[in-house]
Design brief:
The complex is a heterodimer of chains A (about 250) and B (about 220). Chain A is about 80% helix and about 0% strand. Chain A is mainly α and about 250 residues long. Chain A has one domain. Chain A is globular, with a radius of gyration of 21 Å. The two termini of chain A are about 35 Å apart. With about 220 residues, chain B is an all-alpha fold. Helix content of chain B is about 80%, strand content about 0%. Chain B has helices at about 1-15, 25-40, 45-70, 75-80, 80-85, 90-120, 125-155, 160-165, 170-185, 195-220. Classes of the chains: A mainly alpha (about 250), B mainly alpha (about 220).
Chain lengths: ~250, ~220
């Protein structure tokens, strides 16, 4: 495990894993979408619009899981000061923002025919919106601080502060009376959802997770490469003009 | 241990009172925000008295955060921050003291002004007391959360706006329970003490946790 903390070994591992992960993600998403559209039954009340669930729910899970991945990476940054953890943090923020946005948009599209409104200010929707805003704030922080290691530490602290929002999202449907329905898959007493709908949902969730890991690995790889490029260009500039080197490295 | 912190507290007050300190700016900003709202909404006193607690809370939130980006900026510029970090007094206590001084200078006048402004919004006496009490209980949490953002953005160009973007989403629970307890004071189905105690709890959590996060953010600036 420690061997792959070395960025060079990590790049080699990522190069081997990415094609397999991408293939598996494409396969799971293809099967999941087929099951969603041609096998899973329509809801007796909601009709075909229940199919939005197969995008909405995995996107919501991934939006939260991505934050937990980012939190683990933030601990790696603060405790071990590991550059790979910095890259993992930075790569996760836009992905999490994207999944959360997909969750919000599909939820809104689903809410219009079912609840009669695009948006309600209830606890679940608001806390997911706050998650989205935290992702945007983190991206802003990454873009503002120029020194990568310093940006990573600042983002790690903010990530750890913002993690209080994750249990709030998870339990918001239990703590408050909301329009959003409560958990029906991961709950005590087993899933309260028919197997004919549960299986397509789980396969879609698997596909989303594989897609996330594929994109995350690719983004970490790009981040490592762009850092190397930055270092090389500084070294090259330093070789030409020693005074620049003094300024950059001081 | 207490005397360096007392000296720091006094220093903060003196700096804010001196020329260029801008200590009173927050309460003036609060006044302007509250008095602009009726122009946007219209002078309907029934409506204004109903949403009065919300107006006062939003204005308090924004004007508390307004001065906070300067909390560590001047110290970072002139090097005092490095002295705080190196001193034997824990940085967490320094942060807490600076927050206490900032709260005394910006939030306390604002809490005193809030009932007067509430009168102009046609609020009932019970609601005025509720707003003042909820601001008294909630603004420490706002200041301390803001200190985390101030620590993260100290020494950055364009730090002010970024700080608001980072911290405002996290202030949502304080705003919710602050407005809830202020509204509950003037009647309604929820008893006043339920949201008020949660608000107090949020402030106590911020006192316990935020100085550590802000101090970590300040130390993270060093390579």
């Amino acid at each position: 495990m420690l061997k792959y903390a070395n960025p060079t070994n990590f790049l080699a591992l990522a190069a081997r894993l990415i094609p397999w992960l991408a293939g598996a993600a494409a396969l799971a998403l293809a099967v999941g979408l087929y099951l969603t559209f041609f096998v899973a039954p329509d809801d007796y009340q909601q009709g075909a619009s229940v199919k939005i669930m197969y995008l909405h729910v995995p996107a919501a899970w991934l939006g939260m899981m991505c934050y937990m991945v980012m939190t683990s990476a933030a601990l790696g940054t603060l405790v071990w000061r590991h550059p790979l953890a910095d890259a993992a943090q930075k790569a996760a923020a836009p992905l999490g923002a994207a999944f959360t946005l997909v969750c919000l948009v599909t939820g809104s599209l689903w809410g219009k025919p079912m609840w009669g409104t695009w948006w309600v200010w209830d606890a679940r929707l608001t806390s997911v919106l706050v998650l989205f805003l935290i992702y945007l704030g983190l991206i802003g922080l990454w873009q503002t601080i120029e020194e990568p290691a310093q940006a990573a530490r600042a983002a790690a602290i903010l990530t750890l502060v913002g993690v209080v929002n994750i249990p709030i999202i998870k339990f918001s449907v239990d703590w408050w009376n909301t329009l959003h329905q409560s958990a029906s898959v991961f709950r005590l007493g087993g899933p309260a959802i028919a197997p004919s709908m549960l299986w397509p949902l789980l396969i879609m969730a698997l596909g989303f997770t594989l897609l996330f890991f594929t994109l995350h690995l690719m983004a970490i790889r790009n981040e490592i490469l762009s850092r190397r490029l930055r270092r090389l260009s500084i070294t090259a500039a330093a070789a030409e003009d020693p005074e620049v080197a003094g300024e950059v490295f001081s | 241990m207490s005397s360096p912190l007392a000296a720091l507290f006094g220093r903060e007050l003196r700096i804010a009172r001196s020329v260029g300190g801008g200590g009173a700016m927050g309460v003036v900003f609060f006044l302007i925000l509250v008095s602009l709202t009726p122009f946007a909404i219209g002078p309907d006193l029934n409506l204004l008295s109903r949403i009065g607690p919300a107006i006062l809370w939003i204005a308090a939130l924004l004007s508390t955060l307004l001065g906070l980006d300067r909390l560590f900026q001047a110290d970072a510029d002139d090097g005092s921050l490095d002295l705080f970090i190196m001193s034997s007094t824990p940085l967490e206590l320094v942060v807490l003291t600076k927050c206490a001084a900032h709260w005394t200078l910006t939030a306390l006048p604002l809490i005193a002004a809030a009932p007067l402004l509430g009168l102009t919004l046609g609020m009932e006496p019970a609601a005025l007391a509720g707003v003042a009490a909820s601001l008294l209980a909630g603004t420490p949490a706002l200041t301390l959360l803001g200190a985390i953002g101030a620590g993260l953005t100290a020494g950055l160009r364009r730090g002010g706006l970024l700080m608001a973007v980072l911290i405002l989403p996290l202030t949502t629970p304080i705003l919710i329970f602050g407005v809830a307890s202020a509204s509950a004071a003037s009647g309604g189905t929820v008893p006043f003490h339920t949201p008020f105690l949660i608000l107090c709890g949020l402030s106590l959590m911020a006192v316990a946790g935020a100085p550590f996060a802000a101090a970590a953010a300040l130390r993270a600036r060093e390579a």
